[in-house]
Write a structure and sequence with these properties.
This protein starts with about 25 loop residues before the first strand and ends with a helix. The protein is mostly helical. Helices cover about 75% and strands about 0% of the residues. Helix 9 runs parallel beside helix 11, helix 30 packs antiparallel against helix 31 and helix 31 packs antiparallel against helix 32.
Length: about 650
Amino acid sequence: MKSISARLRLAALLASSVILTCNTQAYGVTAEQLLEQGISKLRADNYSGAFTDFNKAVTMAPKNASAWNHRGYALYFLKKYRESLADYNKALTINPKFVDAMLNRALTKRKLGDAKGAIADCDQAIGISPRYSRAYIRRGGLREAENDLLGAIDDFNKALQLDPNSGKAYFCRGLARFCYAENEQDGNDRSSRDAHYKAALEDFDAALKLAPDYTDALGNRGLCRLRLQDAKGAIDDFNRVLKSDPGDANTLANRGLAKHCLDDEQGAEDDLTAAIAMPNPSALMYYNRGLVRTELNKFRAAMEDFSQALKMKPDDHDYLEQRGIARYRLDDHNGALEDLNEVLKKEPKHLNAHLYRSRIYYYLKNYEAAIADYNEILRQRPTDRTALSGRARCKFKRGDKQGALEDAEKAVELSPKDPNAYISRGNIKHMMGDTEAGIRDIELALEIKPNYTRALFARASMKFDAGDLKGALEDYTECIRLDPKDEVAYNNRSLVKIELKDFEGAVQDCDAAIKLRPEYTFALNNRGIAKAEMGDKEGAIADQTEAIKYSPKYAVPYAARALYRQQIGDTKGSDEDMDKAVALDGENGFVLRDRALIKQLRGDKAGAKADFQKACAFFKAENDMTYYNESFNLMSKMEASAERAKH
């Protein structure tokens, strides 16, 4: 989850200087009365109305420093900073020791980019009134804005020594402590970081004890609780803020993150969507919603969110990286490579970008490029098990079986208590044709971590490839029992059920997978296969068409649709689909098998046999004996039928 930034809403201090007496009147209203009216309007956030009153007061009493100070204050909130500065200068010309005008001018100088001048004004104010707590609060806020957090904390400490009942000082110190902890986010000492979060939490508690409805303190206390992994407590605080202000976009977004921490992804998406619907949504809101939508398997919507975030902040590497990952999940490999290449161009040592790019290169069968990415990860992090395991797969595909096994063995040697190391080594052994040894490694992983779904899933896949359909069914079913939201387990169990001729059960599993992940190409493809086996060719074609919509560069659904179109007599449509499938991946075993079946239907037995043989070779090389046997049996059945026809 991306770091949550504190909402630093340091409210400007309203000047509290004594208003100078003036006898000037206009239409029966004195300058003092105009000042009082203007101050009331300031408190009601009516800055234009306040300016009008202060402007009249200045006209009536041009030597009244307080009138100039207040008009400058109204101009500040109207974002007319240079005019505001001129008014504060005028007030200080009239009264050079006017502390409140100095403190207000400091805020304006900060807005105009003069941070040094702003702090100098605070220093001067403290020199004149060393026991004025608000001066320390103002200087602390400016130091905090300049990231001088320890200096800010010192100022807030001084303010609290002078006024132990200052809720503002507690609040501001809490913010500074929170930010100090945030700056330690990339450090290794979690306990030190948590100590700062806890200190910030205590400050927000103190501020709320003095002012129970202090919404800024509630919101930031919620952020502290979230950082301290108290998501429920955070939600309680955010709910109190939203009760007071239902349209607080930042708090809605933060509550969404808290719900995400509690695995309430739908609630998180709803809150972030509500936040984005408010005026001026931030890039971070779109980014966080994209992350949540990724968790919900809404990859297309996530990609759109990351794209919107990038429009607002084009140079953010995190946004670009996550869009690349979303594109990868959508099988848009060229788009994903474009994004990840751009990330690596700007940040060559970005480990996660190297990792996902290596996976794309592996899918595209560019094993050398994938190995280069894994090598870079291992150069930076020599004990990275994921990189060793990924490189092992690439070496195997490249024909370097010994190198593949060495990488897998090294992963286990480096992490002997990591079940994933054994799973990775088991997968390599399985790929090398020793499925029994592979399963033994999976069982070692399960000894380390019983009921580990990743291990059960790997064992199920190995059993399926080896033709142990009953064993595969049991393992996938256990995966689903342990994690009912695992859409991949439902999808893979549907494949087992198809092989066991339980086509209705296969459709039900695909339905469950698609409900969890609506754009799930593999589940749509498999449901189409099951429907075709049940005689629903039109339904099968519809599912393959939907699969193609989401993954237009995936060859298998084109080949399947080509077969079903041939079965209903649409030879032209069948040819178009098969041509597309072959152009995309003509060496794929499923494409070759389906083309063989089409040739068989058209009476081209020799062509069908050639394709069946190629399909068998493909599946044997993948050590996928279930589909090898299926293709071999289809070929044998065709030959037997042809032989019987001769007699």
